[in-house]
Specification:
alpha/beta, single chain, Immunoglobulin-like, binds alpha-D-galactopyranose, globular, eight-stranded parallel beta sheet, 2 domains, TIM Barrel, 389 residues
Length: 389
């Protein structure tokens, strides 16, 4: 336990994947309005986070941060108020170095001043990146410094440690004051990336989380973060245009189900990263699927784990607070697979002579003996919730 600021994984929207460095205050206001209109706020998405490029090119005379006068002419307080007025929470971005990843002024050595500014502006969430000159200081020290500065101000501010997993933040970011910590490099809107491309695809991240075996670091108050959602994104989205990644088409429906379904099995923070003013109905339905969100937000706070990896066919379990479990049958491969698992082998589910089962995509319910099986299309994932009968 590292505190109560994030008893369940934070949910919200972040500007980066949709807008990258072109973000403006109008985009952020539209996103806040759209969270309300699409029903995403109602489904639990509450933080509106402005990522990199919101700041002016120089610190102010006191070493403080200030908003870019052209892209954010109304200033941070007005934007935070706009977001709060819609029943949402407001987040900003900085970096534990001299500069942000896009070369804007950042917070190393100015943590107290910046934390006070954030509190004064009404910031509820800080995403803190790892770019810029580190001035010879190690990651633990740099993140701890901002964690302490945030703890010292008179406002609750969720601290999102974005260190890309390089120094194993699951071992120290909670003690540094973080409520979530990135476990991997940046997710891009692809299934897989090649070695010479920037970032990781959905399949790459699922495999990385399976290999890392860091579920024991994950729980109420502190969460492993496999990065934000790319649901709804493709070649035209901001990050795809900005980063050196060859994105040729949007994620397919099957890839998108695996992305969202596996992020929920992982108990991941769910930060939507698409243009919400142009959200397809299929993506809206997926992002507001309350059966999946309940799995993600389950109060036990367990991270799902792979219990079997048979080539590209994987079985994942996530124990849930009500004594049941979520089961994902995940086909990372290129041909249809029948994937089968024995519910009785889920060690957290009490043994019974039968089980109640619900398909989390369709909502359909039935009862069954121990075996749970599905024909899973290539790159698709079936997700079930099971309870002892
Ligand atoms: C890094 C982070 C991303 C995003 C960009 C912004 O790559 O990992 O999530 O914040 O910086 O420049």
């Amino acid at each position: 336990m590292t505190g109560t600021l994030a008893p369940t994984p934070p949910m919200g929207w972040n500007s980066w994947n949709a807008y990258s460095c072109t973000v403006t205050e109008a985009d952020v206001r539209e996103a806040a309005d759209a969270l309300v209109e699409t029903g995403l706020r109602e489904a639990g998405y509450e933080y509106v986070v402005v990522d990199d490029c919101w700041m002016a090119e120089e610190h102010d005379a006191d070493g403080g941060l200030r908003a870019d006068p052209e892209d954010f002419p109304s200033g941070v307080t007005a934007l935070a108020d706009y977001v709060h007025d819609r029943g949402l929470k407001f987040g900003l971005y900085s970096s534990a170095g001299s500069h942000t990843c896009q070369g804007y002024p950042a917070s190393l050595g100015r943590e107290r001043r910046h934390a006070e500014q954030f509190a004064g502006w009404g910031v509820d969430y800080l995403k803190y990146d790892n770019c810029g000159d580190h001035r010879g200081r190690d990651a633990v020290d740099r993140y701890q410094e901002m964690g302490e500065a945030l703890a010292a101000v008179d406002r609750d501010i969720v601290f999102s440690v974005c260190e890309w997993g390089q120094n194993h933040p699951w071992g120290w970011a909670g003690d540094a004051g973080g409520q979530l910590w990135r476990a991997t490099d940046d997710v891009v809107a692809k299934w897989r990336t090649h070695e010479d491309e920037f970032g990781l695809g959905v399949r790459d991240i699922v495999e990385r989380l399976a290999d890392l075996d860091i579920a024991s670091a994950h729980g109420p108050g502190g969460w492993n973060d496999p990065d934000m959602l790319q649901v709804g994104n493709g070649p035209d989205s901001g990050q795809s245009q900005h980063e050196p990644t060859d994105v040729r088409r949007p994620l397919t429906d099957a890839e998108t189900r695996t992305h969202f379904g596996m992020w929920c099995l992982l108990g991941a923070p769910l930060m939507v990263g698409t243009d919400l003013t142009d959200l397809a109905e299929t993506d809206r339905t997926l992002l507001t699927n309350e059966r999946l969100i309940d799995i993600d937000q389950d109060p036990l706070g367990a991270q799902g784990r792979p219990v079997r990896r048979d080539g590209d066919a994987e079985v994942w379990h996530k124990p849930l607070a009500d004594g049941g479990a979520a089961v994902a049958l995940c086909n990372l491969g290129e041909r249809v697979r029948e994937i089968r698992t024995a519910v009785a082998r889920i060690d957290t589910v009490a043994e019974a002579d039968g089980y109640r089962i619900q398909d989390c995509w369709s909502g359909e319910r039935w009862t069954a003996g121990s075996d749970l099986a599905a024909e899973v299309e290539p790159r698709d994932t079936a997700v079930f919730r099971v309870w002892p009968r």
